[in-house]
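Lab notebook page, bench 4
Experiment: in silico fold of construct C2
Operator: M.H.
Input chain length: 400 residues
Purpose: comparison with the prior construct
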Amino acid sequence: MSDLFTRPQYFQNIIFHRHTDRAVGWLELFYDLVYVATLIQIGNFLSDNLTLLGFGQFLVLIFVVWWAWTGETLYQNRFVADDLWHRILVFIQMFGVAAIGLSVSKAFGDLYVQFTLGYALVRFVLILMYVRTYTAHPESKSFSTQYMIGFAGGIIIWLVALLLPSPFHWIAWLSAIIFEIVFFSRPAIVRELLKWGADAHHMVERFGIFTIIVLGEAFVKVLDDAQGSAVGMQQILFSVAGIGVLYSLWWLYFSDTAGKLYDDSSGIKALLWTYGHLFLAASLVAFGVAAKKLFAETIKYPDYPLTEEYRLLYMIAVTIFLLALMLINFGLDKEQGPKNPIATIVVYLGGAVAVALIGGFVTGATATQFIAINAVVMLALVVFNTYQSVSSPVDHLEAE
């Protein structure tokens, strides 16, 4: 054991890095999977609470978990830290994330203390990471100090929330996050961020990997719910149209948007790119729940109009996905995006409007008919995307 603690590779200097084209590490991937497991539980929460209030609570939970994930992701993006102590800290964070996941179903009820303490643990460990950076990397002392203060302020608000009546807990959670956003948006900190920059390639890869895992879970949800079901013509037709929509979601992001650098010269564009991925994650989790519900309808009520809650949830999920793509595309570096980005944004907006109209007015369709109509819209967007790529190709390798 003593040899383990004295090997040089287990104690490295923490290095501030930028523009190094560093690949995502194995520990980061493991870390992301724990978060996705928590997102699955949030999806289950939505599935059990398909009301307007339940959807609002679902969005709060998504925002909280995504914000916690983003904090560690940005730290790992700015600093090279993979020694023994860093790994121990990350594993402790995973314990906190697991506590959050276990508490999701009753985060607004009996398990709010466990949920709060799980989040506070994740944030406290992140502060310890910045403390290590403060001591190991003198050049970033000011940078690290600001993050320690900001996250400490957020933790205090979270802990104060324990003293509030139950209906106000979520308000305190969001208040803590808003406090951190405002704190880190102060001009002095923004100047510090611009001074140090970020590893854009690492950021793009990390967000892309997280998104593909969440998208994959949408497919898993349907398979898990349909396990053991007899498949007839109705289910086959639904599956063909449903997979068409799922592939379209993959295509529109991973064939057109993922891998392209955001515009780090513009603070507004970088923010739109970043927060666009928040809405992307929320939409994909909701999409998985909606697709599962729709498939169940083809088995239970194949010839009856689709249940209103399921129809609206599917519509909202796909609409938010397309709006998120708009934000992300607007935040792309102009050399990375299509030659006519405005056309792309307008077409995605048109697709979002079309999906919303289908969800709002196609009330008499069965689950199979409803998803087939949506598949036509989504595949039309893929055709546009393909045409745009062929007619005005961008040499991404050269641009990077």
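Observations: Residues 1-11, 395-400 have pLDDT under 50 and may be disordered. The longest strand covers residues 15-16.
Next step: discuss at group meeting.
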